[in-house]
Specification:
The protein is of the alpha/beta class and 273 residues long. Helices cover 33% and strands 22% of the residues. A hairpin with a 2-residue loop joins β9 and β10. α1 runs parallel beside α3. The radius of gyration is 18 Å and the shape is globular. 38% of the residues are buried.
Length: 273
């Protein structure tokens, strides 16, 4: 069992066929933390309104998170656009899971990170929601192809690889959108007086500095199968969990871990916690 100070997870999209619940469940079985942040789009309300899809594995993920909360783990849920109905319950708790619009997380080294899903700073979501729903339909179609593609890879003994991620990052307009989103998030973080931001929404895991602001995106559990972890010294990593380690037909192998070196600097504001 790997233990961390904090786990950051977002964009699980429970309730959709594209959700890689088995991988996330395996990740939660092998990793634990003092605090777990669920940063939006945990349950996909958009898709569930259209058709009901809820296999046992999706229920198991929720049960595992609630079990961790019962055992003393501090679990904070920040809803996103696909589970926006949860925002009306901000300030309340559900099964010891605290629900908040956003949060400020203080790293072990004192840096203050603004925690938000990120959809409120997506122009498409705010000004052309119909386009966002159309994009969601097209995205779901790509994920169907991605699912069949990876079933063939597993049969031949290869680990998970995201066809949809490859296509998205190869399209010039998509790359431009991601860059604009990251810059917008960094600008808003500076305005709020924080040292960095942790978000999700765009399904692209990243840890980097943007104009002196630490930008972190923990990725997703549909395409990239990633989470972000905080070690006990305050350093941050993106963990790629692209193979299941226990009791599966998938190949038993160590997950790829990409370590990002966080820049050390004095926090802009003192911690209030």
């Amino acid at each position: 069992m790997n233990r961390y100070r904090t786990l950051f997870i977002s964009d699980v999209h429970l309730g959709t066929p594209g959700c890689q619940a088995a991988y996330l469940l395996d990740f939660l079985r092998h990793n634990d933390a003092d605090t777990i942040y669920l940063i939006g789009d945990i349950i996909d309300g958009w898709r569930l309104k259209k058709s009901w899809y809820w296999p046992q594995e999706h229920n198991d993920v929720l049960q595992k998170l609630m079990k961790k909360a019962r055992k003393g783990c501090r679990v904070i849920y920040v809803p996103g656009n696909h589970d926006e109905a949860g925002r009306q319950f901000a300030g309340m708790s559900f099964g010891r899971i605290k629900i908040r619009h956003e949060d400020i997380h203080v790293l072990a080294d004192g840096r203050r990170l603004w925690v938000t899903h990120g959809d409120l700073f997506d122009g498409v979501m705010q000004y052309a929601k119909w386009l966002a729903h159309l994009g969601d339909w097209l995205y779901s179609a790509i994920l169907v192809a991605n699912r069949w593609f990876n079933r063939m890879r597993v049969r031949f003994g290869y680990p998970y690889w995201s066809l949809s991620q490859y296509l998205k990052h190869s399209v010039k307009n998509a790359v431009s959108f991601i860059s604009s989103f990251e810059t917008m998030m960094a600008r808003e973080t500076r305005h709020r007086g924080c040292d960095g931001v942790v978000c999700g929404h765009i399904h692209k895991a990243e840890i980097k500095m943007i104009d002196g602001i630490l930008y972190c995106n923990d990725g997703d559990w549909v395409e990239s199968l990633t989470a972000m972890v905080e070690n006990f010294d305050g350093s941050l990593e993106i963990v790629h969990w692209n193979s299941i380690l226990g009791g599966s037909e998938l190949p038993r192998m160590q997950p790829l871990r990409i370590t990002k070196v966080a820049v050390s600097f004095e926090p802009m504001l003192e911690s209030t916690e």
